[in-house]
Design brief:
Layout (H helix, E strand, L loop, with lengths): L1 H12 L4 H34 L5 H4 L1 H23 L3 H32 L4 H18 L4 H22 L2 H24 L3 H29 L10 H15 L6 E9 L1 H8 L1 H19 L3 E7 L2 E6 L5 H16 L2 E3 L2 E3 L2 E9 L6 H17 L5 E3 L4 H18 L5 E10 L5 E12 L3 E3 L1 H10 L3 H16 L7 E5 L10 H12 L6 E5 L3 H4 L1 H13 L3 E7 L6 H4 L6 E4 L1 H5 L5 H16 L3 E4 L5 H9 L4 E2 L18 H8 L1
Parallel strand pairs: 6-7, 9-11, 11-12, 12-13, 13-14, 14-15, 15-16
Antiparallel strand pairs: 1-3, 1-6, 2-3, 4-5, 8-9, 8-16, 9-10
Helix pairs in contact: 1-9, 2-4, 2-5, 2-6, 2-9, 4-5, 5-6, 5-7, 6-7, 6-8, 7-8, 11-12, 12-13, 14-15, 17-18, 18-20
The structure holds ligand C2E and magnesium ion (2 copies).
C-alpha cells in the first residue's frame, strides 16, 4: 500500500492530473469488488445451508448477511466513483478502506466458519475446505491488490491451523497444509505474473507524463513557430492561424471583426542611418505601444519588416474601427528614444472587415493591404477600410511600380522647370526642377503619384541621381544668375553618400554650388535629425542652399525652425489658396513671413495663381513667389528667362 501511495503522490508531483489515471484504477477496483460479491455470496450460502440445522440462527445468518451487505455496498460505491471520477487522494483512501475491509471480512468470515465448526463438528472439514476455496478464489480476484490478498491468505490459514490444532484432527491438518501451500504457490505465481495495482498506476502515470511532456513540447514548438523572435508578438503564421480560428468560430454567427494592417513610414531611414540594432529597438517599441493599445480588445502580430497586423474582435461599427486605427497611429507618432537618440515614425493603417471584405484570412489580409496602399498613395497617415474600390488603386500601383522600373533612365522621365521670382525686383531667381513621367501605355503620371511609389520600391535614389544630373546640365545653359532648385526625397537621406553624390554631380556639370538649392521636406528630419543636419551642413558649407519645402503641412515644428540648417522656407500653397479672402489666414501667413525675417530665412510663397495673392504676399514682405501666375512648369526649350515683363503685366 505504501508503494502505491508513493506512486499516487508521485503522480501528483509529476503534475499529471489525478483524473487521468482514474480510468484504469476504477476499472481495476470495480472489477475487484465485483469479484468479491458472487464468490462470497455462493460460498456463504453453502456454509449457511450446511449450518442452518445445526447452529442457532444468530450464529448462522448475521455474518453472511453483513459480509454480503459490505461487499455489495463496496461494489456500488466503486461503480459510482468510476462514473464521477476521483482525485488521487480519494483513490488512495478508497484503496486503504478496501484493503482493511477485505482483510477484516476475511478474518470475520474465517472466525465465523470456525464458530460453525463448534456447532457442527461433523461438518468441520467441509467448512474448512469451503473457506479455503473462498479465500483462494477471492485472492485470485484481488491479485491486483497484494496486501489485501496476503491478509486474506493469512487470516484463512491462521483459522484453518487453529481449527486443526483445536480438533487435533489429521484431515484438518491436511486441509490447513494444502491451503497454506496452495496459497503460498498462488501468491508467488500471482505476484510474479500479475502486475500489481501500483504497477498499473505507475505505468499509466508514466504514460500520461510522457504524453503530457510531448504535448508540452508540441505546444512550445508551436508557440515558437508562431511568435516573432524580435518583438515577442505573433508572427504572420501565428496571426493567420488565429484569424482562421476566429473565422471558424464566427462562421455561423457572422459576427464582425476587423483585421488591420499597419505600415510604418520613416522606419527604413532609421534602420539605414542608425543601424539594425536601432531599427530593432524601434520595432520593439512599436510592438509594445501597439500591444498596449490593442489590449484585451484584440490581438497584435508583426507580419514582417515594419509591417504589423491587428485584430479588433468586437468593433461596434466602421467608425469605431477607424477610431481604433487613428488611436494606433497616434500611439506611434510620439518620438521613440533609444541610446540617447530620438526617432519619429508615422504609420498608415488599412482595415478589412469580416465577413464583408472576405471570409478567409488570406483574403482579409490582402484587402486590408489594398486599403493600406490606397491611403499610403494619398500620403495620409490615416486609417482606411477596404470597400472594394481600393482594388483598382492596388492594381494601378502595381502597374506603375512595374512600368517605372522599366522607364528608369529613359526619356520617358524628364524634368520641367517652374520659375521662382523675387517679389521686390521681379527678377527670375531660379527654376524649380519638377519630375515628369509619360508612360506610353498609362500616359502621364503625376509626381505626386509616382514619387511615393519610387520611394517605396527602392528606386528613388537612382531616379534622383538621374534627374539631378539632368537638372544641373540644363542649368548650365541658363543665365549665370539663374539657379536651379531640386527636390530631394526624405528617403534619399538614408544614403550615406547623398552629399558626395550632389557635390560630384555639380562638379561633373561644372555648375557653381551657389546656383543649386535643394528642397527638403520636414519629414526628412523625422528619422535621424542629427545626421540629416550634418548632411545639410556639409552641403551649405560648399555653398549649396537648402530650402524647407511645403512648410505648414505635416509635422511643422516652429520650435525647431531656428535650429534647422535651412536658408529658405517655402510656404505651402495650401496657405496661399484662400489667403485673399480669409483674414485669419492672412494673419498666419504674415506671422510666418515675419518669423522668416527674424530668423534670416528667405521666404518663398508657393502656388500664386492670382494677382490678389501676389499683392498680399508682396505687401507682407515675402521674398519670392512661385505659381502659375508667374509661369507654369515647362520644358527647357520653352523657358524664356524673361520673367520681369510677366511680373509687370501681372501687377499692371
Ligand atoms: P513641390 O516640390 O511643392 O512642387 C510644387 C508643386 O506645386 C508642383 O507640383 C507644381 O507643379 C505645383 N504648383 C506650382 N505652382 C502652382 C500653382 O500656382 N497652383 C497649383 N495648384 N500648383 C502649383 P508637381 O509638379 O505635381 O509636383 C508635386 C510634388 O512632387 C512636388 O511638390 C514635389 O514634392 C514632388 N516632386 C516633383 N518632382 C520631384 C523630384 O524630382 N524629386 C522629388 N523628390 N520630388 C519631386
Ligand atoms: Mg519643391
Ligand atoms: Mg512645395
Amino acid at each position: 500500500m505504501s508503494s502505491l501511495q508513493t506512486k499516487l503522490q508521485a503522480s501528483d508531483h509529476g503534475n499529471v492530473a489525478a483524473s487521468d489515471v482514474n480510468g484504469t484504477q476504477h476499472g481495476v477496483l470495480a472489477h475487484t469488488a465485483w469479484a468479491f460479491l458472487p464468490v462470497l455470496v455462493v460460498n456463504l450460502i453453502l456454509i449457511t445451508s450446511a449450518g442452518i440445522d445445526r447452529a442457532p440462527w444468530w450464529v448462522v445468518f448475521p455474518v453472511p448477511f453483513a459480509a454480503i451487505c459490505i461487499c455489495g455496498h463496496q461494489y456500488w460505491n466503486l461503480r459510482r466513483h468510476n462514473r464521477t471520477g476521483l482525485t488521487a487522494e480519494e483513490q488512495r483512501q478508497v484503496l486503504q478502506t478496501q484493503t482493511w475491509r477485505s482483510a477484516g471480512t476475511a478474518a470475520v468470515v474465517s472466525a465465523w466458519g470456525f464458530a460453525m465448526c463448534v456447532y457442527a463438528p461433523d461438518m468441520a472439514h467441509f467448512f474448512a475446505a469451503v473457506a479455503g476455496f473462498t479465500a483462494i478464489g477471492s485472492a485470485t480476484y484481488v491479485a491486483y491488490l497484494q496486501l489485501p490478498m496476503r491478509l486474506i491468505f493469512i487470516a484463512v490459514a491462521t483459522s484453518l491451523l487453529a481449527l486443526a490444532l483445536a480438533t487435533q484432527d489429521y484431515l484438518s491438518f491436511i486441509i490447513a497444509f494444502c491451503f497454506a501451500t496452495n496459497a503460498l504457490l498462488l501468491e508467488l505465481y500471482l505476484s510474479t505474473h500479475y502486475r500489481t495495482f501500483g504497477n498499473v498506476v505507475s505505468q499509466h502515470v508514466e504514460a500520461q507524463s510522457k504524453y503530457q511532456d510531448s504535448k508540452r513540447a508540441q505546444a512550445e514548438i508551436l508557440s515558437i513557430a508562431n511568435t516573432d523572435d524580435l518583438t515577442g508578438v505573433m508572427n504572420r503564421r501565428g496571426f493567420l492561424s488565429e484569424v482562421n480560428a476566429l473565422i471558424a468560430e464566427r462562421s455561423t454567427s457572422g459576427e464582425v471583426f476587423a483585421l488591420g494592417v499597419i505600415d510604418l513610414d520613416g522606419f527604413k531611414p532609421v534602420n539605414d542611418c542608425f543601424g539594425h540594432a536601432a531599427g530593432d529597438r524601434v520595432l520593439i517599441e512599436v510592438a509594445r505601444r501597439l500591444s498596449a493599445h490593442v489590449g484585451e480588445r484584440g490581438a497584435l502580430a508583426r507580419l514582417g519588416g515594419d509591417e504589423f497586423a491587428l485584430l479588433i474582435l468586437h468593433p461596434e461599427n466602421k467608425d469605431a474601427v477607424l477610431a481604433e486605427g487613428r488611436a494606433a497611429i497616434r500611439a506611434l507618432s510620439a518620438p521613440i528614444e533609444f541610446n540617447g537618440q530620438v526617432a519619429q515614425v508615422s504609420a498608415s493603417c488599412g482595415f478589412a472587415l469580416y465577413p464583408e471584405a472576405g471570409t478567409t484570412a488570406a483574403t482579409l489580409l490582402e484587402h486590408a493591404d489594398e486599403a493600406l496602399y490606397a491611403v499610403k498613395d494619398e500620403r495620409r497617415s490615416a486609417p482606411a477600410i477596404y470597400d472594394g474600390r481600393n482594388a483598382t488603386a492596388v492594381v494601378r500601383r502595381a502597374t506603375i511600380q512595374q512600368r517605372l522600373r522599366r522607364a528608369m533612365g529613359t526619356a520617358e522621365i524628364y524634368l520641367e522647370y517652374q520659375p521662382i521670382v523675387c517679389t521686390e525686383t521681379g527678377r527670375l531667381l531660379c527654376y524649380e526642377a519638377l519630375a515628369r513621367w509619360k508612360d506610353p501605355e498609362i500616359g502621364q503620371v503625376s509626381p505626386g503619384e509616382f514619387i511615393p511609389i519610387a520611394e517605396n520600391c527602392g528606386v528613388m535614389g537612382e531616379l534622383s541621381r538621374h534627374l539631378l544630373r539632368e537638372a544641373l546640365v540644363t542649368a548650365t545653359t541658363w543665365p549665370s544668375h539663374v539657379g536651379v532648385s531640386f527636390n530631394v526625397s526624405p528617403t534619399s537621406f538614408a544614403d550615406n553618400t547623398l552629399a558626395l553624390t550632389i557635390i560630384g554631380c555639380l562638379d561633373a556639370a561644372g555648375l557653381s554650388p551657389s546656383r543649386l538649392t535643394i528642397e527638403i521636406t520636414e519629414s526628412a528630419f523625422a528619422s535621424d535629425h542629427e545626421r540629416v543636419c550634418e548632411v545639410l551642413d556639409l552641403l551649405r558649407h560648399v555653398g549649396i542652399r537648402v530650402a524647407m519645402d511645403d512648410f505648414g503641412v505635416g509635422y511643422s515644428s516652429f520650435a525647431n525652425l531656428d535650429r534647422l540648417p535651412v536658408d529658405i522656407l517655402k510656404l505651402d500653397r495650401s496657405f496661399i489658396a484662400d489667403v485673399s479672402a480669409d483674414t485669419r489666414r492672412q494673419h498666419i501667413v504674415a506671422g510666418i513671413v515675419e518669423m522668416c525675417h527674424k530668423l534670416k530665412l528667405t521666404c518663398v510663397a508657393e502656388g500664386i495663381e492670382d494677382v490678389a495673392q501676389l499683392d498680399f504676399i508682396t505687401k507682407i514682405g515675402c521674398n519670392a513667389v512661385q505659381g502659375y501666375l508667374l509661369g507654369r512648369p515647362a520644358r527647357p526649350a520653352a523657358l524664356t528667362h524673361e520673367i520681369e515683363p510677366t511680373m509687370a503685366r501681372a501687377r499692371a
